[in-house]
Amino acid sequence: MRRSAASLEAGVKYLILGALSTGLLVYGMSWLYGMTGELSLSGIAYKLAHWEGNSAPILFAAGLMLAGLAFKVGAVPFHIWIPDVYQGAPTPVTAFLSVGSKAAGFVVLTRIVGTFLTPGSVVAGPVIQILLILGGATILLGNLAAIAQTNFKRLLGYSSIAHAGYLLVALACVHTGGLKMTSGEVAAFYLATYLPMTFVCFLILSAMRAKGYGEDIASLKGLGRANPTLGLALAIALASLAGLPLTAGFMGKFFVIFATVLEGYYTYLAIAVIGAATGFYYYFKVILAVYSKADGQTEGPNPDLGLLSKVSLAVFVAAILVVGVYPDLIRFAVVK
């Protein structure tokens, strides 16, 4: 949106910080190649497991690569682009960044982290500590900053940051045999449950923007009265993001929290629980607005959805509820 100052600011911020993060990532890769002489992940993992020299250069390379990837997934302190970009970008673009870009970033991060955490790796311990510190800080900042937000897209931006924190903590829990899942599979399950919830929120928000409604939470007032179907779908998605039992979001958080218990990371267990409790407040604040009476109007917003959007909405809402009751539906697919 070239005529929007907020959109231009978001684009410039994403361009500059994105270039910086890519530079850090590639510089870390060059260090890793220089030390190991390998470009394949399996070859690098073998060298790290049999490393006999100074581990400082390897750790430096790992830190640079994790910093570059932390930008892609929106982890603290590399998160500063997310609220402004989510708010300034057109809603369909924001939805793609929140769903497609974040999923791709975590797929790459999972593979890179798996290489650094291979059994016997010389940098396994420090990398785990980095992931835990980044994850804990990301959970706290994302959830606490979301409390004061009045713009729905900005709130979803901070929500995205918070969920990235849970995923980072999941990747740091390498001993998850009690769940019969690896840390990467726990993160994949969480990501699989997160994506449909976010898609539902942005689909409804995009439909509202197309009809000229605003992005503030106040603009959602009366949606549940004017269009009960959309109101219910949005309420289910938000409740799942909060981690309400019998929804997919609850199962995702449950696996992450259970993994921290198995590892004995009780500090990060407390952080995860505090984050989840905080999420209930700001997510249900939006649900309350959806079912409250519209200000100065007889009816609330009533956006239209095309046939494809309606089918997509129904599929994702059904997935949120079914996975919440029968999580093995995704769990088996992830483990396979």
Description:
With 336 residues, the chain is an all-alpha fold. The chain has one domain (5-335). It is 75% helix and 0% strand. The chain has 14 helices and no strands. The protein has helices spanning 5-36, 41-49, 56-73, 81-88, 91-116, 124-146, 152-172, 183-210, 223-226, 228-242, 248-263, 266-290, 307-325, 328-335. The longest helix has 32 residues, at 5-36. It is globular, with a radius of gyration of 21 Å. The mean pLDDT is 87.
List the helices and strands and how they pair.
Blueprint: H1 5-36, H2 41-49, H3 56-73, H4 81-88, H5 91-116, H6 124-146, H7 152-172, H8 183-210, H9 223-226, H10 228-242, H11 248-263, H12 266-290, H13 307-325, H14 328-335
Describe what is shown at a glance:
The chain has 336 residues and is mostly helical. It has one domain. The protein is built from 14 helices and no strands.
Helices and strands, in N-to-C order?
Answer: HHHHHHHHHHHHHH
| Number of E strands | 0
Compute the average pLDDT: 87
Low-confidence stretches: none
Beta percentage is under 5%
Overall structural class, as computed from helix and strand content, comes to mainly alpha
Gyration radius (Cα, Å) is: 21 Å
Straight-line N-to-C gap: 42 Å
Major β-sheet profile: none
Net shape: globular
Question: What is the number of domains?
Answer: 1
Number of helices: 14
DSSP helix fraction: over 70%
